[in-house]
């Protein structure tokens, strides 16, 4: 029957599902595979068509046994690829976290450098103030009669130095925020700031005795 429909036979052979051959079929073909006369060059002496079928059967049998050995390796390879993808994803996540940490460290280092520069500038200002005080002391010693007046001036300077941080904070706030307000509102705001500086324990000049932007920024301390 099969040989009477050569096209159907060829179509069946070419479309055969070689990856899912049942073991029962393989067992049935083994008696033919093991037969000493079931070889292409022997069968070719009797039938060319049967030779092709012999070659096909032997090829399917060989493919089945090879695929049977290769399939576990394919599964291991697929599992290894999945594990590799998971590892790479974990690595990418770790690298992203590391970059975030490095960015934070860089920001902290920049902030530290800024604060260090500010500290050095304040130290320079303190040294300059101390130098001025020293010169004032020496000048008072030389002037004699001016000692009392100079003493009062030094006391004023010392008080101004003690109040410097609070006065500068006040002046900076006034420059930054009070420009658009009325004089009455600025007056109330200044009194509120003065109260807040006192609550925070920050020394400052009093508003009633001249705490204002012009005095803080225009004085020659």
Automatic annotation (TrEMBL):
Domain of life: Eukaryota
GO annotation terms (biological process): microtubule-based movement
Name used for this protein in its record: Dynein heavy chain
Coiled-coil segments: 77-139
Signal peptide interval: none
One GO cellular component term: dynein complex
GO MF terms, alphabetically ordered: dynein intermediate chain binding; dynein light intermediate chain binding
Keywords per UniProt: Coiled coil
Residue ranges of every copy of the Dynein heavy chain coiled coil stalk domain listed in the record: 8-194
Annotated InterPro entries: DHC, Dynein_HC_stalk
């Amino acid at each position: 029957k099969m040989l009477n429909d050569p096209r159907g036979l060829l179509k069946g052979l070419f479309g055969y599902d070689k990856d899912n051959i049942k073991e029962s079929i393989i067992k049935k073909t083994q008696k033919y595979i093991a037969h000493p006369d079931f070889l292409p060059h022997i069968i070719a002496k009797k039938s060319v068509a049967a030779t092709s079928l012999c070659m096909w059967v032997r090829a399917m049998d060989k493919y089945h046994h090879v695929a049977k050995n290769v399939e576990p390796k394919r599964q291991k390879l697929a599992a290894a690829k999945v594990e590799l993808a998971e590892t790479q994803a974990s690595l990418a996540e770790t690298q992203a976290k590391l970059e975030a940490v490095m960015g934070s460290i860089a920001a902290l280092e920049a902030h530290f450098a800024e604060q260090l520069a500010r500290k050095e500038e304040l130290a320079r200002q303190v040294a300059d103030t101390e130098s001025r005080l020293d010169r004032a002391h020496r000048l008072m010693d030389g002037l004699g009669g001016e000692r009392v007046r100079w003493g009062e001036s030094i006391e004023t300077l010392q008080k101004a130095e003690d109040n410097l941080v609070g006065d500068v904070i006040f002046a900076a706030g006034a420059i930054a925020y009070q420009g658009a307000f009325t004089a009455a509102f600025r007056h109330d705001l200044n009194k509120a700031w003065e109260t807040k500086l006192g609550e925070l324990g920050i020394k400052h000049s009093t508003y009633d005795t001249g705490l204002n932007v012009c005095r803080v920024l225009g004085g020659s301390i």
